[in-house]
Amino acid sequence: MEVTFLYHSAFLVEGEKADLLFDSFRGAKVPEGDKPLLVFGSHGHRDHFSEQTFDAGKVRSNVWFVLASDIDPDRVPKQWRERTIFVKSRETHTLPGEVTVETLASTDSGVAFLVTLDGKTIYHAGDLNDWYWIGEPDRDNEVMTRKYRREIDRMSGRTLDVAFVVLDGRQESEYDRGMNYLLEHVAVGHVFPMHCWKDYSWIRKYRAEHPDLTGKTCFHEITGEGEHFSVSLGRTGSECSCKKNEKESTS
């Protein structure tokens, strides 16, 4: 499986039977081909979705769009409305390429995605995170933590072969709460931190501060936009031998 970090929370996943494009809000370079391309929008925030999300349809004709229901249907170009599915949390859909899409509720807006591709499970969190903010009332933060953990616990007993997970330095000393709980309670093969606002030092910081958690998975240290990874599925921790390739143009 090939994974390209595009920017922010946008990733391209290239599988055998289909390709997946997540949260591409300023366009993305996608490979040509006949395989189905499934384009996901986890919610309507401008750092996850825009009209440029639909640019993928200029390159691939066999394209489908899977958008959270908080996105205004009027933002979908007419030519793609029959190829667009709007989803809410707790839904399951079967799509071209023998792809199954399940949804979780976000702790912010929209949904998180669990996608089964080529028999493997790919998790994209969207804005599902433990948004614990220093200075906010304790009660509000506690409610957030309970909501987040309830959603993550729904994946207990499953294996996430690839997981794209929020690691946001704006949370300061609490930046690691969401990542910690996921890695402590769900089996994850490969982790790609995201939503870092171009400050990738938080990824290095996390690895240094949590060797126990990053050591039991393939924790990918992203350093910039366009980085490409050849992912060897079925290997974790010290067995991880994934190849990180040269950066590619993302648009």
TrEMBL record:
It holds the Pfam family Lactamase_B_3. It comes from the Bacteria. PANTHER family: MBL FOLD METALLO-HYDROLASE (PTHR42967:SF1), METAL DEPENDENT HYDROLASE (PTHR42967). This is MBL fold metallo-hydrolase. It comes from Candidatus Limivivens merdigallinarum.
